[in-house]
Amino acid sequence: MAEEKNKRSQFAKMQAGEEEFSEAVLNVRRVAKVIRGGRRFAFSALVVVGDKRGNIGIALGKSREVSSAIAKALRRARKHMFSVPLYKTTIPFSVQGKHGSSLVVIRSASKGTGVIAGGAVRAIMEALGVRDVLAKSLGSSNPHNVAKATINAFKKLRSARHLAALRGKTLKDLFGEKNVAA
């Protein structure tokens, strides 16, 4: 009950625009539709929105103008945000995601390493709030597919508390008395 109320209050804050978001435009494309009188140009924008505390959203917006395409994408990205479990300043374990021909390998790193990633992956990590991570993008370098592969990798992550609950154990049973942080 308390969790549901907390989610509602977070949603209300988001709607009111009280929360601070980190926004990044990953890609803007000009597309053309051929009609009888010539070509009609439009734009598609891929953006990422994060709160730098483990919540992230990614979306594509399309419009006749660049600014309205970006605005549409930002609205959609805020609406479809999801939570990613983090461990201190990194991710809990190494994971890989795939979309199309793009493969993204993300590895947790020790404190002080920084964000070792490029392109779309770097922008997503910064919006998410991850400060120490190693990432490698393999295969296609298309920003849309790389971004979606990164999101697929994030969706595979689980927190230690969630894994313990799935196994019907406590954190102390899994990791021992010394390794469990309060």
Features:
182 residues, alpha+beta, Double Stranded RNA Binding Domain, Ribosomal Protein S5, domain 2, 2 domains, four-stranded antiparallel beta sheet, four-stranded mixed beta sheet, 6 helices, 8 strands, 36% helix, 32% strand, elongated
Description of the structure:
- The chain is of the alpha+beta class and 182 residues long.
- It has two domains: 2-82, Double Stranded RNA Binding Domain (2-Layer Sandwich), CATH 3.30.160; 86-163, 2-Layer Sandwich (Ribosomal Protein S5, domain 2).
- Helix content is 36%, strand content 32%.
- It contains six helices and eight strands.
- It has helices spanning 2-16, 66-79, 119-128, 143-155, 160-167, 171-175; strands at 22-35, 38-50, 55-63, 82-83, 95-99, 102-108, 115-116, 133-139.
- α3 (119-128) crosses α4.
- It is elongated and about 75 Å long.
**Average predicted local confidence, pLDDT:** 88
Tell me the number of strands.
Answer: 8
State the domain count: 2
Strand order of the largest sheet: 1-2-3-4
Q: What name does the CATH topology of the largest domain carry?
A: Double Stranded RNA Binding Domain
* Sequence stretches where pLDDT stays below 50 over 5 or more residues: none
Judging from the principal axes of the Cα atoms, what is the shape?
elongated
Helix/strand class: alpha+beta
Helix content: 25-40%
Concise description?
The chain is an alpha+beta fold and 182 residues long. It is built from six helices and eight strands, in the order αβββαββββαβααα. The protein folds into two domains: 2-82, Double Stranded RNA Binding Domain (2-Layer Sandwich); 86-163, Ribosomal Protein S5, domain 2 (2-Layer Sandwich).
